From TrEMBL:
<dbReference type="Pfam" id="PF11079">
    <property type="entry name" value="YqhG"/>
</dbReference>
<dbReference type="InterPro" id="IPR024562">
    <property type="entry name" value="YqhG"/>
</dbReference>
<protein>
    <submittedName>
        <fullName>YqhG family protein</fullName>
    </submittedName>
</protein>
Length: 294
């Protein structure tokens, strides 16, 4: 990421979390964090637990972030944080560049907050009837990660959506969203259609559809992995069993128990490494309100 991309990302985060921009220049911003951003970025759990217990008005921190990328020598010599006292209070000053601790923290905050979103498509400017109201349908969009695992691993991503009004499933839903301008704010002159199915049922329908798809895939890889698993188990059995059978004396009992435990451990390790399996996880999901009746 270059300096402009980093600044654009940071400003987008500040806007989406409702922060107050005090000063903005081509390479620097001074911002008073919103409560949501302060909770995510300042690592003050005791302060926020006090605010939650006492229902007190919070005093969030103010930051001055510079986007001019410092040289490697400056990064090693300079302190990452400095403070400036102004009439409005203390400003925490930091350099935000690719690889900096603060930018990494912003990435992590976006990743955590972005796991579940509610967004609305913004209608084209100038094409809205000021006296009318456009219907919007709610879609549940989910990014699934499917991992095919054995002694090798392959992953596939599925970005599917289901209309909460009709139950229609779109297996290219996330691709359709790429060219749409989305906002967390409800546009004007818009009304939301009533959902015909619940979120729980919508998620169940997506999971069932994905399960049916996976059952119809080619499982040659799993058959080959199972063969390799059996070959590896046969190999270690040929190694350990003759030794165990030869330990029949009473004075070898402890040694035999130790060797048996090691044999069982190796069997378990090979079983974990080679046994074919499919795991499905949700990367992120959201409710997307799109124009039209679907």
């Amino acid at each position: 990421m270059n300096t402009k991309q980093i600044q654009k990302f940071v400003l987008s985060y500040l806007d989406s979390t409702g922060c107050h921009l005090i000063e903005k220049s081509p390479n620097r911003v001074v911002v008073k964090l919103s409560p949501a951003a302060d909770r995510a970025l300042t690592n003050r759990p005791y302060y926020w637990s006090f605010i939650d217990r006492t229902d007190t008005e919070p005093e969030t921190l103010t930051f001055g972030w510079s986007f001019e990328s410092p040289s490697m020598s400056d990064r090693s010599n300079a302190s990452p944080v400095s403070y400036v006292m102004t009439e409005a209070g203390r400003i925490v000053q930091e350099d935000v560049y690719y690889g900096s601790r603060r930018l990494h923290q912003l990435f992590e905050a976006v990743r955590q907050d972005g796991r579940n979103v509610t967004l609305f498509e913004e209608p084209p400017r100038g094409k809205i009837d000021p006296l009318g109201s456009q219907p919007y349908t709610a879609w549940l969009g989910v990014n699934f990660k499917v991992a095919y695992e054995c002694d090798m691993k392959r992953e596939e991503l599925y970005g599917w959506g289901i209309s909460l009004a009709t139950g229609v499933i779109d297996d290219k839903f996330m691709e359709r969203l790429k060219d749409r301008k989305l906002s967390p704010r409800l546009p004007s002159n818009v009304h939301l259609l009533k959902n015909g199915i619940s979120l729980r049922k919508g998620m169940s329908q997506l999971e069932l559809t994905l399960e049916r798809k996976l059952k119809n895939t080619d499982f040659t890889w799993a058959v080959e992995a199972e063969k390799r698993r059996q070959d590896e188990l046969d190999r270690i059995r040929q190694y350990y069993k003759p030794m165990l059978e030869g330990m029949g004396h009473d004075n070898q009992k402890e040694m035999k128990e130790t060797l048996t435990a090691r044999f069982k451990q190796r069997e378990a390790e090979i079983d974990w490494q080679y046994r074919p399996r499919i795991s499905v996880s949700v990367i992120n999901c959201g409710i997307f309100h799109l124009p039209g009746i679907h």
